[in-house]
Design a protein that fits this description.
Length: 366
């Protein structure tokens, strides 16, 4: 194995330790591999993550900018490198963040909008014509609880808990399965739509109880094929462009914001609560106002003092250390000694099993 390949494998291992979905880990590895290739072109072969320096990352960012990369894609690259470096114990924030580099921020406006009641009724009618009841249940759960597609797809085993909490008068429902980057959150039942939400949960629970609590089942009986089937079903429905599947979360956000403002909740508190319910954390209020609430922007003051979307790195690290859930992070070994973290390669000629898809692959002899 070459030196650069060792560095990419080291970054992949650190990415796995950083957590997140499999797609996030794969993208981090690919982004680091591209950065490693760029470093080799300028005469620096990286055998490990801790060999990267600030100026290399900054040069790489400007290299991507010179290639006319869009701000959104560039932000994904910088986030991947930042996560890997931060998990390895290196502070590269000045080399990857937008403000220090004075980079253009991504434009996230106008991609989706909330559905009207008639549009939602038409969507349910079209979904029922497909003959796939699981798709109907997924759509209803996404709309009334503001779930992401993956969260709605995997929530079968949580439906009974949600039903009991609502019957007990509790409107905050925990979301653990399928949560983005593995971060559990709690959504909130809309005060004016408790009956609709309870009906959607009961119907979904009755449907999937005899199906191993799976709303959608793929051809290979795994999450990947189930997600692919659900996406193909969405493509057959009027769920495109501004009315894509994410528009259901926009509908929930607009209803939540209108109801909270009608109750007299302060505008900043409305945005803070909505950001928390949608799983973005309480610090993303500016993004919530500009993206999810753009249709009701007129209901908020023209000049409103909002907390910054950017949390200083020192405060973030200090807060993570105080959280009991993250206590095990400090127990991880440091990455400075690469020999301790080098993966053991299986013996040549042996058969290894991959659990992601349930298939077995033969490892070719080199």
């Amino acid at each position: 194995m070459g030196r650069r390949s060792k560095g990419v494998n080291h970054a992949a291992q650190i990415s796995r330790e950083a957590g997140g979905s499999k797609d996030s880990q794969k993208h981090r590895r690919l982004h680091w591999s591209e950065f490693s290739r760029f470093a080799a072109r300028i005469g620096h072969t990286l055998e490990a993550v801790d060999e990267a320096e600030d100026w290399m990352l900054e040069f790489f960012v400007w290299f991507l900018v010179a290639g006319a990369m869009k701000p959104g894609t560039l932000a994904n690259y910088r986030a991947s490198l930042s996560v890997i470096q931060g998990t390895a114990g290196q502070d590269m924030s000045c080399s990857t963040r937008s403000r220090p580099l004075q980079l253009e921020r991504r434009e996230r406006h106008g991609k989706h909008r909330a559905r009207t009641p008639q549009e939602f009724s038409d969507l349910l009618a079209a979904a029922e014509k497909l003959g796939d009841d699981g798709v109907v249940h997924v759509i209803r759960l996404m709309r009334w609880l503001g779930l992401r597609m993956r969260e709605a797809l995997m929530c079968g085993k949580s439906l009974e808990i949600w039903r009991d909490l609502i019957l007990q008068g509790n409107r905050r429902l925990p979301i653990e399965r399928g949560a983005k980057n593995g971060r559990p959150r709690r959504t909130e039942v809309l005060a004016d739509h408790v009956e609709e939400t309870l009906d959607a949960i009961n119907a979904a629970l009755a449907f999937c109880r005899d199906r191993d609590f799976e709303l959608i089942t793929g051809c290979h009986d795994d999450l990947k094929s189930a997600k692919a089937r659900l996406k193909s079903r969405f493509d057959q429905l009027p769920m495109r462009r501004e009315l894509g599947s994410h528009s259901l979360r926009f509908t929930y956000a607009v209803d939540f914001g209108n109801a909270a403002l009608d109750r007299g909740v302060p505008p900043v508190e409305v945005l803070t609560q909505l950001s928390d319910r949608l799983g973005h954390g309480p610090s993303r209020v500016k993004m919530i106002l500009d993206v999810y609430c753009w249709q009701i922007r007129h209901r908020f003051p023209e000049k409103i003092h909002l907390p910054s979307d950017f949390v200083p790195l020192e405060k973030t690290v200090a807060r993570n250390r105080e959280m009991p859930v993250m206590a095990s992070v400090n127990d991880r070994p440091q990455h400075g000694n690469r020999a301790k973290h080098r993966r053991r390669r299986p013996a040549r000629g042996r058969r290894t099993q991959v659990n992601h898809t349930g298939f077995q692959h033969d490892r070719k002899n080199n």
